[in-house]
Amino acid sequence: MLLLPYLIAPPMHIRRVTPDDLHPLVALARRCYYEAFSPETYPGNPIQAFIDENVTTAIYAQEMTDRRASFWLAENEAGEPMGFLKLRRHAPPRRLAERNALELVRIYLLRQYIGKGYGQQLMQFCLDQARAQGHKAVYLGVWEHNAPAIAFYRRQGFVPFGWHVFPFGGERQRDIWMSRAV
């Protein structure tokens, strides 16, 4: 059996988004969403309609004013954006037994950084934030057809606990709720 060396990604810098980051964050989010859900990967998926409706400067500016939410920008060693997170403190879905849970609303990396250990660094940052805020669990929703993301979350210790409908580009798609203790 051939064993390949385990690649450790160089550290990324993760920092809280400021109002000055609004336009670069929206551009990054639009690119991340398109790369993750492009028609090449998911034929017929209405990704552009979703982006045009939901990933706008006005919407992200409004989301950034929510005191329960925080956006985090991941940058490489050269200071270039690689991905981002959005975390939110609020009541979790009724199906989640642990009521003291932080929602991981968004976790995205540009395609060129996927599979290199950066996703794990972002996830660890999320778990560390949950612990620091006194939460007992983290939960998220993931599209039922996004097998790579579901596999990643499972490797990070997340387990399904239900599902909900997610409006996506004029469609009603099903997201699986997943959670893990911190």
UniProtKB/TrEMBL annotation:
Residue span(s) of domain N-acetyltransferase: 12-182
Organism superkingdom: Bacteria
Alphabetical UniProt keywords: Acyltransferase, Transferase
Kinase among keywords: no
Keyword Ion transport: no
Listed Pfam families: Acetyltransf_1
Molecular function (Gene Ontology), one example: acyltransferase activity, transferring groups other than amino-acyl groups
UniProt-listed InterPro entries: Acyl_CoA_acyltransferase, Bact_Acetyltransf, GNAT_dom
Record-given protein name: GNAT family N-acetyltransferase
Native organism: Fibrella rubiginis
